[in-house]
């Protein structure tokens, strides 16, 4: 059976996005060219460049797509299991910041710090990611972030998650992280209820 | 008056270390070569290479030196002013993670994530920095971290500081950060006292 052309094009695009994230996380920003990502995805360089003329376009699209997918997963899990405990909410958001997507994003953020053009591309993404992650945590905790104290604690939880992500970049920090998440969640639970 | 040769050598070394941190923070890992740092420090490339044969040696020495200086400053400030409030302790440690040294370290950590040799050099630094920062916060809060709950809260404070540092890399995040620090400090104070 022939795959319709449009589906094939969409599948190629998704393979490129996934390969871009893996390449960034494992080989870093400088190594992540459209050519290398195409090879990793098993796509011709021409096809890759048809989808993404520049690596900035490829990488922005990859981060956008993976972030949305990750947030959708977190929301679906919660939908399936019903209300989560505070500790489960913290665990799940911390998981988002310790996976491959965070390691890929870190490469891009760090490159953008020394590159004003890239920074201008990345700032709107950063803002959108921050806003969305905040909303997801507020929903899952079932709290009202019109309360400034609550809002501060939700923000702090996301900053903590980001810091735990950074601590996991050079070695597996999962054992220490479990203790920190438990301590934080107990505190957050006491503060919110 | 002639500067004694040893003092001159020491001054050259310190200029190179400071220039390495600034170059890393502003221009990123790839741009930070011994040659560029020497130019920025106003030191001949030969003299720079006499002190630091490779950029890995230069950069490791720079991070080591700046970290120790920063921690010494935090300790001295506390010594001058007497016991600090919980919020002041959190503010000061967060300041350490939002300055030029953190931005320089971030470049090195991120490069090390994709470079096993560099990672092997950086891991002992990461461990030492983590241990020292933990001890400084414990001292300044005047708490006993043999208590596992206290230890978890101190660790969480350092992870939060790291996350706030990362949020400050692409834009000035100081306004949002003040609210987050205040929210967490209030929580930490309630949890510790």
From TrEMBL, chains A, B:
Protein name (database record): TetR/AcrR family transcriptional regulator
InterPro entries tied to this protein: Homeodomain-like_sf (IPR009057), HTH-type_TetR-like_transc_reg (IPR050109), HTH_TetR (IPR001647)
DNA-binding region: 33-52
Name of one Pfam family that matches: TetR_N
Species for this entry: Skermania pinensis
PANTHER family: HTH-TYPE TRANSCRIPTIONAL REGULATOR PKSA, HTH-TYPE TRANSCRIPTIONAL REGULATOR RUTR
Membrane-spanning parts: none
Residues covered by the HTH tetR-type domain: 10-70
Keywords tagged on the record: DNA-binding
């Amino acid at each position: 059976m022939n795959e319709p052309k449009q589906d094939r094009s969409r599948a190629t695009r998704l393979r490129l996005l996934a390969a871009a994230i893996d390449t960034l996380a494992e080989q870093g920003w400088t190594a992540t060219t459209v050519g290398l990502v195409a090879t990793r995805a098993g796509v011709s360089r021409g096809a890759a460049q048809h989808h993404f003329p520049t690596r900035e376009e490829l990488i922005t699209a990859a981060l956008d797509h993976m972030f949305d997918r990750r947030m959708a997963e977190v929301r679906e899990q919660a939908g399936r299991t019903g209300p989560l405990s505070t500790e489960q909410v913290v665990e799940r958001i911390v998981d988002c910041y310790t996976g491959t997507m965070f390691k890929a994003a870190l490469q891009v953020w760090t490159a953008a710090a020394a590159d004003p053009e890239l920074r201008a591309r990345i700032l709107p993404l950063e803002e959108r990611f921050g806003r969305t992650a905040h909303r997801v945590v507020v929903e899952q905790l079932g709290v009202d972030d019109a309360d400034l104290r609550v809002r501060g604690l939700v923000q702090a939880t996301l900053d903590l998650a980001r810091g735990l992500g950074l601590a996991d970049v050079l070695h597996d920090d999962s054992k220490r992280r479990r203790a920190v998440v438990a301590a934080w969640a107990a505190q957050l639970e006491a503060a919110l209820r």
